[in-house]
Amino acid sequence: MIKKDVIIIGGGAAGFFAAINIAEQNPTLKVAILERGKEGLQKVKVSGGGRCNVTHAEFIPQELVLNYPRGEKELLGPFHQFMTGDTIEWFEKRGVELKIEEDGRMFPVSNSSQTIIDCFLDEAKKHHVEVLYNQSVKNIFVSPRTQSRGLNFEISTNQDEFSSEKLVIATGSNPKIWKLLEGLGHAISQPVPSLFTFNIKDERIKDIPGVVALNVEVKVLGTDLWSEGPLLITHVGMSAPAILKLSAFGAIELAERHYKFEIEINFIKQSFEDCMEQLKELKQQLAKKTVFKSTQFDLPKRLWHKLVLASSLDQDSRWADLNKQQLEDFAKQLTQAIFKVDGKSTFKEEFVTAGGLDLKEINFKTFESKLHKNLYFAGEVINVDAITGGFNFQNAWTGAFIVAKSISG
Ligand SMILES: Cc1cc2nc3c(=O)[nH]c(=O)nc-3n(C[C@H](O)[C@H](O)[C@H](O)COP(=O)(O)OP(=O)(O)OC[C@H]3O[C@@H](n4cnc5c(N)ncnc54)[C@H](O)[C@@H]3O)c2cc1C
């Protein structure tokens, strides 16, 4: 039996961040990470298209939590302990400068996730964190018989047996570990995918992949789900923030509908009535021009063409000739266009799982289990997930830092 003071299961973002901070804050503790892979930090490596979107330039906790469909309420307190600004400072102090992009996402100045990996590996070495690879955890026992000796947990892997006083679970979205945690009496919210794009077959978006409408409103019909933002037309449907936000906030509801539902898009973010008024004015102003060739409302030309043809107009229809019905048809396409979604696709290989350890069973002041003393959690293993933009990593950093403070203090 190999004895450690603290064992961390999972050498990913949360696991490394917790281990480094524990070892730094309390150098007397023997800290080990058990990682099933032959390397750790694999998601960090591929994250943000290889650039690692480390966090987001949102510095108000009350605003930051709004990006978490699951965890909004619970993360408010933790963000007051360790915020995005603390993340930036943590990396800066260790020589990793971050930069802010226009949309608020933050990346290492190097534009390479390897910078983050190198920082973690260097820090782990510097603070004598032992990182044990090819150690896939198969079983966890809470061991009352050894508690008198301060050894609360027994952990068996494919190779060895370990015992430790404190145990941190940082295994990300891993069904096998969730099963083990169920065995320890914890409840798991059923995992479903989050952050996906919508599959849509429709003449209005056919053959125009890459077209972006900069600011649209999207509703999922028959639900309260609603979002706004840029919309990208892809080869198989629609993507970009307006869609990804719906996929995250609607992760459970859309899974229940087996990803078959209807959406209504307002491409110009105006009411039908306002749009009608404007179209009537255009009818006067542009009377002799064809509707097809006079793109309006800052819409991309190719999308405008599609919406014109989807109404009861053709390429040669002139503004002056439009009757009331045609104006209404066109206004509907612009403000209330309905599309059938049938299935989903992965967003740039980035996916996050909604689901995980039930939030009611965690003390968010310490990230300790309410069921087992000295058992802690950090990262995606708990039922927290966010929209895209660096928020998922921020959850990992915040949880891991608070775990470290609780353990080392
Ligand atoms: C392609 C992609 C790109 C992403 N890009 C971004 C981004 O730019 N910004 C952002 O904020 N979020 C991003 N995310 C989400 C982000 O990567 C995760 O939220 C984050 O990695 C979660 O950290 P974690 O430490 O909880 O889990 P992970 O990083 O998944 O780490 C868990 C670790 O535990 C190990 N493990 C699991 N089971 C066992 C076991 N039984 N025994 C031992 N070890 C085990 C795994 O091998 C892994 O190394 C991205 C996700 C993907 C898939």
Structure description:
By secondary structure, this protein is of the alpha+beta class. It is about 35% helix and about 25% strand. Strands 1, 2, 6, 7, 8, 9 and 21 form a seven-stranded mixed sheet that branches. It has a seven-stranded antiparallel sheet with strand order 16-15-12-13-14-11-17. Strands 3-5-4 form a three-stranded antiparallel sheet. Helix 1 runs parallel beside helix 6. The radius of gyration is 26 Å and the shape is elongated. The mean pLDDT is about 95. Flavin-adenine dinucleotide (FAD) binds next to helix 1, helix 2, helix 7 and helix 13.
Overall mean pLDDT stands at: 96
Radius of gyration: 26 Å
Quote the distance from N terminus to C terminus: 26 Å
Q: Report the total helices.
A: 13
Shape: elongated
What does the main sheet amount to? Answer: 7 strands, mixed
Short description:
The chain has helices spanning 13-25, 42-50, 61-64, 76-81, 84-93, 113-126, 175-183, 241-249, 251-256, 272-285, 301-310, 324-335, 391-408, and strands at 2-9, 31-34, 55-56, 98-100, 105-108, 130-132, 137-142, 153-157, 161-169, 188-194, 196-199, 212-220, 226-233, 237-239, 260-266, 337-342, 344-346, 352-357, 362-363, 368-369, 375-377. It is of the alpha+beta class.
